[in-house]
Amino acid sequence: MPALHDPLMIVTDLDGSLLDHHTYSWEAAEAWLARLKAADIPIVICSSKTAAEIEPLQRALDIVGAPFIAENGAIVKWQQQTPVAADRPSAKDYAAICKTLRQLREQDGFKFTGFADVTEKEVADWTGLTPRDAALAKTREGSESLIWRDTSEQFTAFQQALAAQQLELVQGGRFWHVMNQGRGKGAALDWLLTHYPPPGSGRWITIGLGDGPNDAPMLEKVDYAVVIKGYSKTGVTLKRQQHVFYSAGFGPEGWSEGLTHYIT
Question: Which Gene3D superfamilies does its entry note (predicted)?
């Protein structure tokens, strides 16, 4: 098991993991956050949230300077760095993704509602965020979040139409996310570990924590995985068998439970 003096990196989802699914509080994780910060262990947020949402959260959590992964892997960023679309300059940006979605809706009649289609108030109503935080959630760079409002048959056709445009759907805790193919949380973590070496020699020892299907690619990549009990109808399914811990608690309670299990 890893210890606090090892070159540890904590890679964590936010909603339903470090943050409570309903209240967005991290109070139950504060003791572990303090231990990790005291040991200079980077806490890498890996979330469907936007960079505009994550940066103030980093300040509130006192982890400014640590790398983060935003929009399910579309954006990798750390202090004084320009956002990098997972090192793939040919990837569609937000405007191009929204344009493609509008074209598919007009051509094939798909029924869905994306963040680009609604106001900040509507996003706040969907999520429970404040209007200010909803505005940050709409500040997108490399993916679109949407609610599917059509049939399962049309959903399959929608996936196929997206694939023809080099786009894919990723399921999150509340929304479906449309993003460039191969830009998920696992690919983004691979890129980060290549470009963000640990102090000294050797390699990072990674512990990943998440509660939703979109966390699975990240949880497959880390050395130690924590699957936090979640509210999604679709659970987290992993191919790996070793070094996987399933929490009994939800949100930050389960988050702390996982770290207590692994870190000596």
Answer: HAD superfamily/HAD-like (3.40.50.1000), Putative mannosyl-3-phosphoglycerate phosphatase, domain 2 (3.30.980.20)
CA 28 from chain centre, in angstroms, equals 20
Taking the model in full, what pTM does it have? Answer: 0.90
Q: Is 203 helix (H, G, I), strand (E, B) or coil?
A: coil
Residues of each domain in the chain carrying CATH 3.40.50.1000: 8-86+184-262
Query: What is the C-alpha to C-alpha distance for residues 183 and 179, in angstroms, rounded to an integer?
Result: 7
- 94-180: CATH class: alpha beta
Domain with CATH 3.30.980.20 in the chain: 94-180
Alpha carbons 83 and 54: distance in angstroms, whole number: 13
Pick the closest to residue 256 from 222, 234, 218, 228 (CA basis).
228
What burial letters (b/e) apply to 46-57, b meaning 16+ CB within 10 Å? bbbbbbbbbbeb
Query: Residue 108 catalytic?
Result: no
Q: Looking at domain 8-86+184-262, what is its CATH homologous superfamily?
A: HAD superfamily/HAD-like (3.40.50.1000)
Q: What is the 3-state secondary structure (H, E, C) of 149-198?
A: CCCHHHHHHHHHHHHHCCEEEEECCCCEEEEECCCCHHHHHHHHHHHCCC
Q: What is the pLDDT of residue 200?
A: 81
Name the active-site residue from 13, 133, 211, 215: 13
CA distances to 71, 72, 77, 99, 237 from 52, rounded to whole Å, are 10, 14, 11, 22, 30
